[in-house]
Specification:
The chain is built from 26 helices and 14 strands. It is mostly helical and 596 residues long. The chain has a two-stranded antiparallel sheet with strand order 1-2. Strands 3-6 form a two-stranded antiparallel ribbon. Strand 4 and strand 5 (284-285) form a beta hairpin. The two termini are 32 Å apart. It holds the Pfam family DUF1800.
Amino acid sequence: MLTQHIRRRFAVLALGGLMAACGGGGGGGDSAAPAPPVAAPPPAPVVEKPATRAEAARFLAQASFGATEASIDRVMSVGYAAWIDEQLALPAAPVHRTYWETRDAAIRAATPGTTANQDQVFESFWKQAVTGDDQLRQRVAYALSQIFVISMVDGTVGENPRAVAAWLDMLNSEGLGNYRSLLETVSRHPMMGVYLSHLRNQKADPRTGRVPDENYAREVLQLFSIGLVELNEDGSARTNAGNAIDTYTPADISGMAKVFTGWSWACPDWPDNSCFSQGTANGNSDPDRSFKAMLGYQQYHSTEVKTFLGTTIPAQSLGDPTASLRVAMDLLANHANVGPFIGRQLIQRLVTSNPSPAYVRAVSQAWANNGSGVRGDMKAVVKAVLMHPEARRVNDTSGKVREPVLKLAAYLRAFPHSSDTGFWRVGNTDNPATSLGQTPLRSPSVFNFYRPGYVAPGTAAAAANLVAPELQIAHETSVAAWVNFMRDNVASGVGQTNGTVNGVALNRRDIRPDFAAEIALANDATALVERVAEKLTWGQAGTALKAEIATAVGTIAIPALNTGGTNQAAIDTARRNRVNAAILLVLAAPEFQIQR
């Protein structure tokens, strides 16, 4: 009976509620251009400290993978800005590659002939997301992984999981550095090179008709820097005679493509041109070439005039890929569009789908000048995103739909969880019918899982000029799958079952919850639901919702202890079932699935 209630009531409520919370429902569409921004609310003073634990938890939903009791305590103690500063001061370390290499060595030793694979990238991601101290750094890196996209769905990238782990480390490090450095590091990373085909890209050859591959040149403009149309500081489109102004032309792409010729693998014998093809020359190769920055090979770099975005690199007597790249990166990093274009997406990934013009402008200004005359300081940008008054208050258009990965992370952090193996073996969660429909670093294309300007056409959201990017991957099947997936995870634990501990095979899920505090309240359905709603929604769940869930939970009878005490196991099972039901029903509700 309760299972039917869950499926019928909340699978429908969740999808309907998500649509309603975002201003509409139904339909489908896709747009890379942002919708016209909503009007700015009246300015408000910056709030330095949360007044309640719910406010602290709301902040942590934006700045981390989810609130824990300990992280709430810290924010309550030191305030928002000091917590951010503490997080920014934590050093970046190659945790993901180190983890992958350690696991690879152990797997090879245990089973000769086998190696670590993509699963170990997922393990490291989830371990850091759930247990890592540097939550802000990891959360920003995840956001950037959805802007600067590579994907292990691609065969060549997927065959190099060690390099993908190193890519994630790079985003951890560069993501809170300077954008100029980040953009060049992204451009020279071999996994980006193979994903967008500028690794081993060669200059034009008139004899064969070969021309430089334009794939990366197009995407670095469209997705990684300046976008499709010229923007004002507040993110609104600049116009000419009422029409948006394109940021670049096909000729600009062709000119930029020449910059990205002659780049290939790092190699011990560089600049020996024989390294260009496979990163090997004279029998020497670099075992780390899959993640070391690509190097420029003079012979393969275009010497032609390179003209793009109003800048011209004169013809070169000898190809100089490093000099050409420097000009292109400097130009893009200093382009007026970068602040509002990338800044708005960071707001969307961390805080709200529909920031006001004033919000975007404030972040753009922080991008242009960190207060010390430095442009592109990502620490200053992230702080501006999180500390803006609009981020610290709730209104009718604030917030965003929680994507599946962030929903699972929030659940795993809301209640104490531990990993039997220590590996956090969540695994691949691609399947939208039986799992999350989303796996970190496995987007279907360079355009991410969803587009920043996604609007469901013909809906109230579209009429109100509101975007809801994450709804692009939400549909009836995925909403029902979330309920079914989490019903199993809450009851039985999360992750894979085929692990071992000290050579002993496991016969249960790897990631185990500790619901002791909730079980202690199970006899009182109202008190139990109040606690669960607080842990998962932090004030967003209303009285009516909590009452409905408590009524449903109360239908699970807890037997009285009999005289001999022989039915204690049945009592314990009933209490746990009440806890499972309360958690699942809150997880299915829009009040959890919308991050306000």
